[in-house]
Amino acid sequence: MLISVTGSTGFIGQYIVKRLLADGHTVRAFVRKGRSQALIDQNFPGAAERLQFHEGDLTQKESVSGFLKGADFLVHLASAHDHLGDEIMQAVNVAGTEHLVADAEENAAENFQFINVSSAVIGVPVYSYYRDSKRVQEKIVRGSSLRWASFRPTLVYGRGDYRHTAPLLRKCGAKKGSFWVYHEGLSKLNPVHVDDVVEAIVRCFTYDRGREDFRIFEIAGPEGISFNDFVDLTIAATGGGVKRRNIPRRWVERAILFKGLFRDVTKERRGAGYFSLHHDHDITAAREELKWEPRHYSQGVKDITKDDWWREDRSATGHTENLGI
């Protein structure tokens, strides 16, 4: 099959491209100008024969045209996050998705399916423009004339993620010091290994019901774990000597209130609200319909700390562009 991929040079995107090539598919990667080398340098088996590139800019409709010509599936991973600003998130997450839908409706294969990889934050009742832009993105796909499936992964971790996973591992793996948690640490997280995210997506290609029906799949670990357990498991896996220390949320809120007398503390307020909520997601649909089973974080964090790849700080090199989906 011909499978198109956006966000192909990012953290999850590179795992997707590698797996699709290994499974014998032809991959057409949407890349910004000059970024194809990031995939070429990976030397994925099968890339020379079955990896194609389409250079363009999702914010420019004319440069998207033809990307989905003859494609059987699109795995839409590309996304802009809060640190890029509202205008860019609007242009990429919303307008970019509209451009892809238009191209698919005009050029894709007859039984084409749009696989949208969105975000679990869609359901989180804490305001952020990113969350709202991803909700709109999903609605655009669902409201189109295309067959679609939507995946909502939660906190994705894995080897090669130098933007999020590696800094966490280095912090937890320090020989001494404190890991400060600015709340009681009882709220639940549900991290999911990047290989498990990829496995869920590729199972959708042969999901017969998906040819007739439209589905939303929450993608997370098998069960939620408390933030404190998340930190403690990471410290243990990295062999760190740091001590987790919690500051009660009431004291954090008082500190934010005091800071608010002198400067804008909107970001801090949102962060405090976010970690007062549980992030334990229902993965029943993926389990029952895709026959998918993720690994627990206690195993996953051991898998990614078997060697020292994470000890090198490469966050400023642009080695990966983890879109945090």
Automatic annotation (TrEMBL):
Coiled coil: none annotated. It comes from the Bacteria. GO terms for cellular component: cytoplasm. Pfam families: Epimerase. Keywords: Isomerase. This is 3 beta-hydroxysteroid dehydrogenase/Delta 5-->4-isomerase. It comes from Saltatorellus ferox. Gene3D superfamilies: NAD(P)-binding Rossmann-like Domain. InterPro entries: Epimerase_deHydtase, NAD(P)-bd_dom_sf, NAD(P)-dependent_oxidoreduct. Residues 3-219 form the NAD-dependent epimerase/dehydratase domain. GO terms for molecular function: aldehyde dehydrogenase (NAD+) activity; isomerase activity.
